[in-house]
Amino acid sequence: MTKLDELTSIINEKLNGHKVVIQTHDFPDPDAVSAAFGLQYLLELRGISSEIVYFGKFDRVTLRLMSEELGVKLTAAADYTGSEEDLVINVDGQKNNANFTDMVGTEIACIDHHPWVTDYEYPFVDHKIVGACATIIFGYFKENNVEIPANVATAILYGIKVDTQNFTTGVRDEDIEAFSVLNSLADPTLLARFDSNELEIDDLRAYGAAIQNFVTSDGVGFVHIPFDCPDRLIAMVSNFILSLDCVVLSVVYADRNGGLKFSIRSEVPGFMSGDWVQLALAGIGDGGGHPTMAGGIIFPEMLPVLGDDPDHTIRQRFLTALASMQKKP
Fold first, then answer.
1. Which residue stretches of the chain are H helix?
2. What is the pLDDT of residues 142-194, one digit of tens each?
3. Are 236 and 120 in a shared domain?
4. Distance between CA 26 and CA 106 in Å, rounded?
5. pLDDT of residue 328
6. Residue 128 shares a structural domain with residue 236
7. What does the pLDDT read at residue 34?
8. Same domain, 155 and 286
9. The domain boundary residue, chosen from 173, 195, 217
């Protein structure tokens, strides 16, 4: 029995006329969207209809292009009418994580490539540490000998490209195998268009804030963006800061609903960014992620704990956490 066989068997046992919902993490990125899109296509082939639902904003230019050009249909949670009888499949994240808002229905499955942090017991789990969640979905096509249509191939390949930063970060053999197959199936013109439409005019404000507010200490670059901006933009600014020759670790954070949203990047071999952000934000927030990239939040009610100079306090927390990690054998 393949993983797809196992998943569809569980769904069919519980379906009984109920809805199937594929939920991405909040503020979905191309990897989450493409993984959900590929899974939706496979379930449709098995006679199971599903709807892709997300919380947060659909705020990436390329995601809008993917929706328009590839036929990816997503529903904002605010526009979704569901019930407790819905069957929910979590994709590219896990229940109870900071970036996964709980939605109506019962979570029956999780397909994810992030470090495992949830204590929720799913009936079905497919967890693999690979470069992208879309790579896991590619494996479903492969092991079931399902032909991949051009629009799905384009979506999955783009999702893998983005999450691995063009196959430079967190790449595994499975990601390379997916590329070797998908590259001949995907639409190169659309891929090029997606790559060239990363920024909007308003995004320049965030880069301007990064230049104005940049502080560095012992190879760690810090930036506070003093306004709300999308997760993908915070991540892009974090990558931008990491590209500076004096920076090997970047910590970029933006205002978010009375709290703060973080994006962490590392180019230090063997460093665990997810552990770092968890340690730095312990007691005032939450975080986690991969060795080279991670994210986190400071809860709104904990912001007063940072005192009169929140930026200084945040820098000290991260530097203290870094020193603690470096002392470990």
1. 3-14, 30-45, 61-70, 133-143, 150-163, 173-182, 188-195, 204-213, 231-242, 273-280, 310-327
2. 999 999 999 999 999 999 999 998 898 889 999 999 999 999 999 999 999 98
3. no
4. 18
5. 65
6. no
7. 97
8. no
9. 195
CATH number of the CATH domain containing 53: 3.90.1640.10
The two structure tokens encoding residue 75: 């529903």
Cα–Cα distance, 68 to 119 (Å, whole number): 37
Burial 178-205 (b: 16+ CB within 10 A, else e): bbebbeebbbeebbeebeeeeeeeebee
Structural domains of the chain, count: 2
Which pairs count as long-range contacts for 2-5, CB under 8 Å and 24+ apart, including other chains? 2/140, 2/143, 2/144, 3/126, 3/139, 3/140, 3/143, 4/42, 4/46, 4/140, 4/143, 4/144, 5/144
Residues 214 and 267 grouped into a single domain: yes
Q: Residue 154: what pLDDT?
A: 98
Contact criterion met (CB below 8 Å) for 215 and 222: yes
- From 177, 195, 213, give the residue that closes a domain: 195
Containing structural domain, residue 289: 203-327
> For the purposes of burial, counting CB atoms within 10 Å of the CB of 129, is it exposed (0-12), middle (13-18) or buried (19 or more)?
middle
Q: How many CA atoms lie within 13 A of 6 on its CB side?
A: 14
Q: What are the C-alpha distances in Å from 126 to residues 87, 129, 135, 261, 292?
A: 16, 10, 12, 28, 22
Q: Are residues 207 and 298 in the same domain?
A: yes
pTM to 2 decimal places? 0.77
Question: What average pLDDT is seen over the chain?
Answer: 93
Phi, psi of 264 (to 5 degrees): -115, 140
Instruction: Split the chain (329 residues) into runs of 10 and give each run's mean pLDDT.
Output: 97 93 93 97 97 83 88 93 94 90 95 93 97 98 98 97 88 96 96 81 88 95 93 89 96 95 94 95 92 92 95 97 84
Residues in a beta bridge with 294:
264, 289
Judge contact between 160 and 131, C-beta under 8 A: yes
